[in-house]
Design a protein that fits this description.
- The chain has 7 helices and 9 strands.
- Helix 1 runs parallel beside helix 2 and helix 2 packs across helix 4.
- A hairpin with a 4-residue loop joins strand 4 and strand 5.
- The protein has one domain.
- The chain is globular and about 60 Å long.
- The chain has 231 residues and is α+β, with helices and mostly antiparallel strands.
- The strands form 2 sheets. Strands 3, 4, 5, 6, 7, 8 and 9 form a 7-stranded mixed β-sheet that branches. The chain has a two-stranded antiparallel sheet with strand order 1-2.
Length: 231
């Protein structure tokens, strides 16, 4: 089993201004365009498939921007044919979006996508983010990406007029967002582990005829990065 790599402050900063943030920024701008053209965020934020859609779109955007992302270098396969040095995949070893280096068969970056809705399951979903950042079992434990395992978290707050459409919905959205912040990113960390937010996307105001008037319904992406516990 390879030794798991801890992120130093320098690597965290590199992830902050580098590949992961660039991918997230492109995804955020793509969402803004799709929202203007097709109200995509309004429509998709209601469905369970939105999480997977975000991961697939992130890969498609990265594949189309290899030059800009520094991922266009070629290498050769065992038969001498030119192939991309960096390969991308969704759901490789149950990682939502994986970037690997074929030269040494090493992981470069792992992005895990998670959505947190203002319903009765929000704490469970927040805990799943931590399970993604700090896997304890399964195939993910075997993989130690050079730039770390990061989480792209979408926070969705919506209040329906008919609460049966959204079981256990939390209506006080501003207070709920503060609770999510405290639970997801506790200042002392959890059991010697810490995570920090290094990027946030734009805040999308959601519109839907089923939503209650007078609430600030919204969706926003955040990038969370694990950091070493102080010694």
């Amino acid at each position: 089993m390879p030794q798991r790599q801890s992120l130093t402050a320098d690597v965290v900063e590199e992830a902050h201004r580098g590949l992961a943030v660039d991918i997230c920024g492109r995804l955020d701008e793509h969402l803004a365009t799709e929202q203007r053209l097709r109200s995509a965020v309004d429509l998709l934020a209601s469905g369970a498939a939105f999480e997977a859609w975000l991961a697939f779109e992130a890969r498609l955007l990265a594949e189309g921007a290899r030059n800009e992302l520094g991922l266009a270098e070629l290498t050769k396969d065992p038969h001498g044919a030119p192939v991309p040095r960096y390969w991308m995949a969704n759901e490789y070893c149950k990682i939502d979006f994986y970037i690997g280096d074929v030269r040494d068969n090493a992981a470069v970056l792992a992005l895990e996508f998670k959505l947190i809705h203002n319903n009765k399951n929000w704490k469970h979903k927040s805990d799943e983010v931590w399970a993604d950042l700090f896997p304890m079992r399964g195939t993910k434990v075997e993989i130690a990406p050079r730039l770390g395992r990061l989480a792209v978290v979408g926070v969705i707050g919506k209040v329906y007029r008919d609460p049966t459409r959204y079981p256990g919905q939390v209506e006080a959205l501003a207070e709920w967002e503060r609770e999510v912040e405290a639970h997801l990113l506790p200042e002392p960390g959890r059991e010697g582990r810490r995570a920090v937010r290094t990027w946030s996307g734009q805040r999308f105001e959601l519109s839907d005829p089923w939503l209650e008037v007078g609430h600030r319904h919204s969706f926003q992406l955040h990038l969370l990065v694990p950091v070493p516990a102080p010694v």
